[in-house]
Design goal:
alpha/beta; Beta-carbonic Anhydrase, Chain A; Carbonic anhydrase; 2 domains
Length: 226
């Protein structure tokens, strides 16, 4: 890799030329409008490229990423992205996406000290602590991925409880919040079935999705014991 990163600039030129050849006028049209229907709130992990996973072009997916796909009411960065997406771009779907074997989630689960990010991962540790009895009851090798899924559910619930989403629902705007998890081992997205389109749906949707996650791990436990 060169000091000037010329290889990345060359790759960009190749990508731009290839895109324009495949779809003439693409960049001219993109310059004039940004009308995504989806806001993706995902992990900053380099192995989880949002647009590529769902095969969407630039301009079709609005993206916010941070360590361990956290949505908290004190994070003005995330909230600002959400507000712009909902109020200005009128996105119809907010998708909180975690992924298997997440390093941030692993660090939170195991109390690993890595530096400044430890303070950020306290949010994931709060999820771990809230569900610690169930996490302790499953196989140790499954706990990281289980916490990844629990974290998605909790962060999706947080997204529903933000003033941005609550205000949108109050004025009758269509916004649906989802929780997904991406498998690094197979490249597939899985819907965790927390799908919320109104404030009064949240409690039931969260409990149903949580029960489904726990039931799936219980089935895996029973299957491995047979």
């Amino acid at each position: 890799m060169s000091t000037e990163l010329q290889e990345l600039l060359d790759s960009n030129k190749h990508w731009a030329a290839e895109t324009e050849a495949r779809e003439p006028g693409f960049f001219s049209r993109l310059l004039k409008q940004q009308t995504p229907q989806y806001l993706w709130i995902g992990c900053a992990d380099s192995r989880v490229p949002a647009n590529e996973l769902v095969n969407l072009l630039p301009g079709e997916l609005f993206v916010h990423r941070n360590v361990a796909n956290v949505v908290v009411h004190s994070d003005l960065n995330c909230l600002s992205v959400m507000q712009f997406a909902v109020d200005a771009l009128k996105v119809k779907h907010i998708i909180v996406v975690g992924h298997s074997n997440c390093g941030g989630v692993r660090a939170a689960l195991l109390d690993m000290r890595t530096g400044l990010v430890d303070n950020w991962l306290r949010h994931v540790q709060d999820v771990r602590n809230h569900h610690h009895e169930w996490l302790d009851s499953i196989d140790a090798n499954q706990r990281v991925n289980a916490l990844c899924e629990l974290n998605v559910l909790e962060q999706a619930r947080n997204a529903c409880q933000t003033t941005v989403v609550q205000d949108a629902w109050a004025r009758g705007q269509e916004v649906v919040v989802h929780g997904w998890v991406y498998g690094l081992h197979n490249g597939l997205l899985e819907d965790l079935r927390i799908t919320v389109a109104a404030a009064d749906q949240l409690a039931a949707a969260f409990q149903k999705a949580l029960s489904a996650v726990k039931a799936r791990y219980e089935r895996a436990r029973i299957s491995s014991a047979d």
